[in-house]
């Protein structure tokens, strides 16, 4: 117990002791007043210290966030056992040692009722403290998760911007290399290439800041780019496009086809006798870029931009992977086709929102359960008191106590029991199916 908690307990003891002295004590003397204060401190310190130790021990070994059900069940069991022992100890000290009552009647009559009533009050206070601890722990965890998600989002955004900024110089460098080769080989074609390159570069500037573009836009750009490649390589390179209309409205990362086409040209030789055949087609949710393998014997070390850029950009947008397949005859790259237009940061806020919704729902469930438990602990002792004071020969309080008790137990099973695990598993299955269908 820290200093602040100790001071709060002393103030509570002071008010309780003063209240009982004023309204429930017949002998108004200073000594009796201090006895009342001592008894109040005895109960308050014993109960608060005992429950605080149990709560701290369980919180160190069982997390409210990660092991909610285990923490709640052990908390309930430990709280009941500890509070029964603490109340019996306090009542024995107060009633038997100070008030000199006979121990033979400790578990019956007035002292028996005092034990029962004290245990219920202690359990009520403990339930409130445990609920407060759970809410504070969950809030702390939620705030931490929000901060982490914001940091992840900022990092991912910076990484995505860095990847997109690679596209401008990369395209310009490769285009100038092609233009340089054409100037020597075919000056008139070089002039045509320069005019076409300005049109293509305009597309690069327009699309590079987007997270996704339609396959139709990307195909139109790729066909124009392929015409420029045909200008240089003529019959040495052949292109085949096979994309149906349904897939044309779906999405891929921008400039992915251009980077992959460059990759094919860069890593393979092409001659009129052995042309390089490049196929672009869609199948089973993927866009395929495939070429017959005619790998160059000597290659300069790659700058690591083309294919690596696409892989990294997809990793920031979706959990679907980019697949690379290579054999002795062909080289194939499969990039995922996405069914909805998203932004790079969409996964982060959605996870944050889902985490908050789960926390809010969980807190609401536990708040309802603890409210039910607190009401039970308050009302039932009151009904027992009324029953024993009015018609002690007929103990009707057992019926509401048992009936309501079964309801509280059912509520606890619903919040912490097997049914919740089954429900969460079904929710996860449905979410995974929806995610797979969307992608």
TrEMBL record:
Transmembrane segments annotated in the record for this chain: 7-24, 30-51, 72-94, 114-135, 368-386, 398-419
The keyword Cytoplasm belongs to this UniProt entry's keyword annotation: no
Signal sequence, start to end: none
Ranges of residues in domain Signal transduction histidine kinase internal region: 158-236
Residue ranges constituting the 2TM domain according to the UniProt record: 358-432
Coiled-coil stretches: none
Keywords: Membrane, Transmembrane, Transmembrane helix
Protein name: 2TM domain-containing protein
UniProt organism field: Kaistella yananensis
